[in-house]
Amino acid sequence: MAVSSYSKQPVDIVAFSLGSPLTRKAIKGGRCVDKNVRLGRSLSSRIGTFLSVAGANQGSDLCEGCSSFLGASVCSITTAGICSPLNGLNQNSTFLKDVNNGRLYEGKYIISLESDSDEKIGYGFPSDIPGSLRIVVKDKNHIETIFETVNLQIRTIKKFNKVRPPTALEKKREEIWKRNWQKTIKRRNQQQQQQQIKEKRLKEKQEKQKQKSEWKKKPKKGNAAAVDSNSINTTEAPNSATISDSASQWVTPSIEGSLFEKYFKHNSGFSFGISDSKK
Protein backbone atom coordinates (compact mmCIF):
# COMPACT_ATOMS: atom_id res chain seq x y z
CA MET A 1 0.00 0.00 0.00
CA ALA A 2 2.88 2.37 0.78
CA VAL A 3 4.49 1.61 -2.61
CA SER A 4 1.20 2.24 -4.41
CA SER A 5 0.67 5.51 -2.56
CA TYR A 6 4.18 6.69 -3.37
CA SER A 7 4.18 5.65 -7.05
CA LYS A 8 0.51 6.59 -7.67
CA GLN A 9 0.02 3.42 -9.70
CA PRO A 10 -1.01 -0.23 -9.19
CA VAL A 11 1.48 -2.67 -7.65
CA ASP A 12 2.39 -6.11 -9.04
CA ILE A 13 2.68 -8.92 -6.48
CA VAL A 14 4.41 -12.33 -6.69
CA ALA A 15 3.46 -14.70 -3.84
CA PHE A 16 5.08 -18.09 -3.14
CA SER A 17 3.79 -21.28 -1.50
CA LEU A 18 1.96 -20.61 1.78
CA GLY A 19 2.54 -16.88 1.21
CA SER A 20 -0.01 -16.96 -1.60
CA PRO A 21 -3.19 -17.56 0.48
CA LEU A 22 -1.85 -15.29 3.24
CA THR A 23 -1.27 -12.44 0.77
CA ARG A 24 -4.70 -13.01 -0.77
CA LYS A 25 -6.29 -12.60 2.68
CA ALA A 26 -4.35 -9.35 3.23
CA ILE A 27 -5.64 -8.04 -0.12
CA LYS A 28 -9.21 -9.17 0.57
CA GLY A 29 -9.32 -7.57 4.01
CA GLY A 30 -12.14 -8.17 6.44
CA ARG A 31 -11.80 -10.17 9.64
CA CYS A 32 -9.44 -13.01 10.52
CA VAL A 33 -11.14 -16.34 10.96
CA ASP A 34 -9.23 -17.31 14.09
CA LYS A 35 -8.82 -14.10 16.15
CA ASN A 36 -11.67 -12.10 14.61
CA VAL A 37 -9.27 -9.18 14.12
CA ARG A 38 -10.27 -6.68 11.44
CA LEU A 39 -7.59 -6.28 8.75
CA GLY A 40 -9.13 -3.25 7.07
CA ARG A 41 -10.70 -2.57 3.69
CA SER A 42 -9.86 -4.40 0.47
CA LEU A 43 -6.73 -3.44 -1.48
CA SER A 44 -7.90 -4.88 -4.81
CA SER A 45 -7.92 -1.49 -6.57
CA ARG A 46 -4.21 -1.03 -5.84
CA ILE A 47 -3.08 -4.36 -7.35
CA GLY A 48 -2.16 -4.64 -11.02
CA THR A 49 -0.99 -8.24 -11.53
CA PHE A 50 -1.10 -10.97 -8.88
CA LEU A 51 1.11 -14.00 -9.61
CA SER A 52 0.85 -17.08 -7.37
CA VAL A 53 3.85 -19.47 -7.64
CA ALA A 54 3.41 -22.98 -6.20
CA GLY A 55 0.73 -21.54 -3.96
CA ALA A 56 -1.25 -23.61 -1.49
CA ASN A 57 -4.43 -21.88 -2.56
CA GLN A 58 -6.65 -24.97 -2.20
CA GLY A 59 -4.77 -26.78 0.52
CA SER A 60 -2.00 -29.37 0.56
CA ASP A 61 -2.11 -33.07 -0.11
CA LEU A 62 0.00 -33.53 3.04
CA CYS A 63 -3.05 -32.63 5.11
CA GLU A 64 -5.48 -35.04 3.46
CA GLY A 65 -4.56 -37.84 5.86
CA CYS A 66 -5.35 -35.69 8.89
CA SER A 67 -8.55 -36.44 10.77
CA SER A 68 -10.50 -34.03 12.88
CA PHE A 69 -11.24 -34.74 16.51
CA LEU A 70 -13.33 -32.24 18.49
CA GLY A 71 -12.39 -29.43 16.13
CA ALA A 72 -8.65 -30.18 16.27
CA SER A 73 -6.45 -31.66 13.57
CA VAL A 74 -4.99 -35.06 14.34
CA CYS A 75 -1.79 -35.22 12.26
CA SER A 76 1.86 -35.93 12.66
CA ILE A 77 3.86 -33.55 14.83
CA THR A 78 5.49 -31.87 11.81
CA THR A 79 2.19 -31.01 10.10
CA ALA A 80 -0.19 -30.52 13.01
CA GLY A 81 -0.13 -26.70 13.01
CA ILE A 82 -0.01 -26.37 9.22
CA CYS A 83 -3.03 -28.63 8.74
CA SER A 84 -5.27 -26.92 11.28
CA PRO A 85 -8.94 -27.11 10.23
CA LEU A 86 -9.35 -23.52 11.38
CA ASN A 87 -6.46 -21.58 9.82
CA GLY A 88 -4.30 -24.28 8.19
CA LEU A 89 -3.88 -25.88 4.76
CA ASN A 90 -6.54 -28.47 5.22
CA GLN A 91 -8.62 -28.34 2.07
CA ASN A 92 -11.78 -27.74 4.09
CA SER A 93 -10.25 -25.32 6.60
CA THR A 94 -12.16 -22.17 7.53
CA PHE A 95 -9.24 -20.02 6.38
CA LEU A 96 -9.09 -21.47 2.82
CA LYS A 97 -12.87 -21.31 2.48
CA ASP A 98 -12.70 -17.64 3.39
CA VAL A 99 -9.95 -16.72 0.89
CA ASN A 100 -11.59 -18.75 -1.91
CA ASN A 101 -15.01 -17.20 -1.25
CA GLY A 102 -15.20 -14.35 -3.75
CA ARG A 103 -13.72 -14.41 -7.21
CA LEU A 104 -10.97 -12.34 -8.78
CA TYR A 105 -10.45 -9.83 -5.98
CA GLU A 106 -6.63 -10.28 -5.96
CA GLY A 107 -5.95 -7.79 -8.77
CA LYS A 108 -6.70 -6.80 -12.33
CA TYR A 109 -4.76 -9.80 -13.74
CA ILE A 110 -4.53 -13.03 -11.71
CA ILE A 111 -2.16 -15.86 -12.73
CA SER A 112 -1.35 -19.18 -11.04
CA LEU A 113 2.02 -20.78 -11.85
CA GLU A 114 2.13 -24.42 -10.70
CA SER A 115 3.83 -27.76 -11.36
CA ASP A 116 2.37 -31.19 -12.08
CA SER A 117 5.01 -32.77 -9.80
CA ASP A 118 4.85 -30.61 -6.67
CA GLU A 119 5.38 -32.92 -3.69
CA LYS A 120 4.33 -30.29 -1.12
CA ILE A 121 1.06 -29.35 -2.76
CA GLY A 122 0.48 -32.88 -4.04
CA TYR A 123 0.72 -34.68 -7.36
CA GLY A 124 -2.24 -33.55 -9.39
CA PHE A 125 -3.65 -31.62 -6.41
CA PRO A 126 -5.13 -28.22 -7.44
CA SER A 127 -2.88 -25.26 -6.67
CA ASP A 128 -4.49 -22.50 -8.70
CA ILE A 129 -6.58 -19.56 -7.56
CA PRO A 130 -10.21 -20.17 -8.58
CA GLY A 131 -10.90 -18.35 -11.86
CA SER A 132 -7.26 -17.39 -12.52
CA LEU A 133 -5.12 -17.99 -15.60
CA ARG A 134 -3.13 -21.22 -15.10
CA ILE A 135 0.48 -21.82 -16.18
CA VAL A 136 1.63 -25.41 -15.58
CA VAL A 137 5.31 -26.46 -15.73
CA LYS A 138 6.43 -30.08 -16.08
CA ASP A 139 8.50 -32.32 -13.79
CA LYS A 140 9.50 -29.75 -11.13
CA ASN A 141 9.22 -30.22 -7.40
CA HIS A 142 8.10 -27.50 -4.99
CA ILE A 143 11.47 -25.77 -4.58
CA GLU A 144 12.32 -26.00 -8.29
CA THR A 145 8.96 -24.49 -9.21
CA ILE A 146 9.79 -21.45 -7.08
CA PHE A 147 13.46 -20.89 -7.90
CA GLU A 148 13.87 -22.27 -11.43
CA THR A 149 11.01 -20.33 -12.99
CA VAL A 150 12.24 -16.82 -12.14
CA ASN A 151 12.63 -15.79 -15.80
CA LEU A 152 9.13 -17.08 -16.56
CA GLN A 153 7.75 -15.10 -13.62
CA ILE A 154 9.40 -11.89 -14.84
CA ARG A 155 8.20 -12.40 -18.42
CA THR A 156 4.66 -13.00 -17.20
CA ILE A 157 4.59 -9.81 -15.13
CA LYS A 158 6.03 -7.74 -18.01
CA LYS A 159 3.57 -9.26 -20.49
CA PHE A 160 0.53 -8.23 -18.48
CA ASN A 161 2.01 -4.81 -17.73
CA LYS A 162 2.13 -4.19 -21.49
CA VAL A 163 -1.48 -5.32 -21.83
CA ARG A 164 -2.62 -2.86 -19.20
CA PRO A 165 -2.86 0.61 -20.78
CA PRO A 166 -1.35 3.47 -18.78
CA THR A 167 -3.77 5.57 -16.81
CA ALA A 168 -4.10 9.35 -17.20
CA LEU A 169 -2.21 9.82 -13.93
CA GLU A 170 0.64 7.59 -15.13
CA LYS A 171 0.89 9.57 -18.40
CA LYS A 172 1.01 12.82 -16.47
CA ARG A 173 3.73 11.48 -14.16
CA GLU A 174 5.77 10.36 -17.17
CA GLU A 175 5.52 13.84 -18.75
CA ILE A 176 6.60 15.46 -15.48
CA TRP A 177 9.51 13.02 -15.23
CA LYS A 178 10.64 13.87 -18.79
CA ARG A 179 10.50 17.62 -18.10
CA ASN A 180 12.46 17.25 -14.89
CA TRP A 181 15.06 15.09 -16.65
CA GLN A 182 15.49 17.68 -19.41
CA LYS A 183 15.95 20.40 -16.78
CA THR A 184 18.54 18.25 -15.02
CA ILE A 185 20.50 17.74 -18.26
CA LYS A 186 20.38 21.46 -19.04
CA ARG A 187 21.58 22.37 -15.56
CA ARG A 188 24.47 19.89 -15.80
CA ASN A 189 25.57 21.35 -19.15
CA GLN A 190 25.52 24.87 -17.72
CA GLN A 191 27.59 23.78 -14.75
CA GLN A 192 30.13 22.13 -17.04
CA GLN A 193 30.41 25.28 -19.18
CA GLN A 194 30.89 27.47 -16.10
CA GLN A 195 33.57 25.11 -14.82
CA GLN A 196 35.40 25.23 -18.15
CA ILE A 197 35.30 29.06 -18.14
CA LYS A 198 36.70 29.16 -14.59
CA GLU A 199 39.51 26.78 -15.49
CA LYS A 200 40.38 28.84 -18.58
CA ARG A 201 40.51 32.09 -16.59
CA LEU A 202 42.65 30.49 -13.90
CA LYS A 203 45.08 29.20 -16.50
CA GLU A 204 45.38 32.65 -18.13
CA LYS A 205 46.00 34.24 -14.74
CA GLN A 206 48.75 31.74 -13.94
CA GLU A 207 50.44 32.40 -17.30
CA LYS A 208 50.38 36.16 -16.70
CA GLN A 209 51.92 35.76 -13.26
CA LYS A 210 54.63 33.54 -14.71
CA GLN A 211 55.47 36.09 -17.41
CA LYS A 212 55.56 38.90 -14.84
CA SER A 213 57.95 36.98 -12.57
CA GLU A 214 60.26 36.24 -15.51
CA TRP A 215 60.27 39.94 -16.56
CA LYS A 216 61.26 41.00 -13.02
CA LYS A 217 64.25 38.65 -13.03
CA LYS A 218 65.74 40.24 -16.20
CA PRO A 219 68.16 43.28 -15.59
CA LYS A 220 66.98 46.68 -16.85
CA LYS A 221 68.91 48.63 -19.59
CA GLY A 222 69.53 51.70 -17.39
CA ASN A 223 71.18 49.61 -14.67
CA ALA A 224 73.44 47.91 -17.20
CA ALA A 225 74.67 51.29 -18.57
CA ALA A 226 75.40 52.57 -15.06
CA VAL A 227 77.42 49.48 -14.28
CA ASP A 228 79.48 49.90 -17.48
CA SER A 229 80.22 53.58 -16.81
CA ASN A 230 81.35 52.83 -13.26
CA SER A 231 83.70 50.15 -14.48
CA ILE A 232 85.19 52.56 -17.03
CA ASN A 233 85.76 55.30 -14.43
CA THR A 234 87.40 52.92 -12.02
CA THR A 235 89.80 51.64 -14.67
CA GLU A 236 90.77 55.08 -15.90
CA ALA A 237 91.15 56.71 -12.49
CA PRO A 238 94.68 55.42 -11.75
CA ASN A 239 95.98 56.80 -15.08
CA SER A 240 94.39 60.24 -14.64
CA ALA A 241 96.59 61.31 -11.73
CA THR A 242 99.88 60.37 -10.13
CA ILE A 243 101.40 61.22 -6.79
CA SER A 244 105.07 62.08 -6.52
CA ASP A 245 107.57 63.66 -4.23
CA SER A 246 110.32 65.91 -5.44
CA ALA A 247 111.01 63.37 -8.26
CA SER A 248 107.32 62.90 -9.35
CA GLN A 249 104.25 65.15 -9.51
CA TRP A 250 100.59 64.63 -8.58
CA VAL A 251 98.45 66.23 -11.29
CA THR A 252 94.73 66.77 -11.22
CA PRO A 253 93.51 68.97 -14.06
CA SER A 254 90.45 70.00 -12.11
CA ILE A 255 92.51 71.65 -9.30
CA GLU A 256 95.45 72.99 -11.38
CA GLY A 257 96.00 76.70 -10.79
CA SER A 258 93.61 76.75 -7.89
CA LEU A 259 94.08 78.13 -4.41
CA PHE A 260 94.72 74.63 -3.24
CA GLU A 261 97.78 74.44 -5.53
CA LYS A 262 99.15 77.82 -4.45
CA TYR A 263 98.71 76.90 -0.77
CA PHE A 264 100.67 73.69 -1.06
CA LYS A 265 103.42 75.37 -3.15
CA HIS A 266 103.91 78.00 -0.54
CA ASN A 267 103.80 75.86 2.58
CA SER A 268 105.16 72.45 1.71
CA GLY A 269 107.33 72.83 -1.31
CA PHE A 270 105.20 70.37 -3.34
CA SER A 271 104.92 71.22 -6.97
CA PHE A 272 101.87 70.48 -9.13
CA GLY A 273 101.82 70.02 -12.83
CA ILE A 274 100.75 67.78 -15.66
CA SER A 275 102.60 64.49 -15.81
CA ASP A 276 104.60 63.40 -18.80
CA SER A 277 101.93 60.86 -19.74
CA LYS A 278 99.42 63.71 -20.20
CA LYS A 279 101.76 66.10 -22.02
Automatic annotation (TrEMBL):
UniProt GO BP: lipid catabolic process
Biased segments, Basic and acidic residues type: 197-216
Region named Disordered: 185-248
Gene3D superfamilies from the UniProt entry: alpha/beta hydrolase (3.40.50.1820)
InterPro entries registered for this protein in UniProt: AB_hydrolase_fold, Lipase_EstA/Esterase_EstB
UniProt-recorded Gene Ontology molecular function terms: lipase activity
Pfam family, one: Lipase_2
Record field: compositional bias (Polar residues): 228-248
Transmembrane feature ranges: none
Protein's name in the database: Lipase domain-containing protein
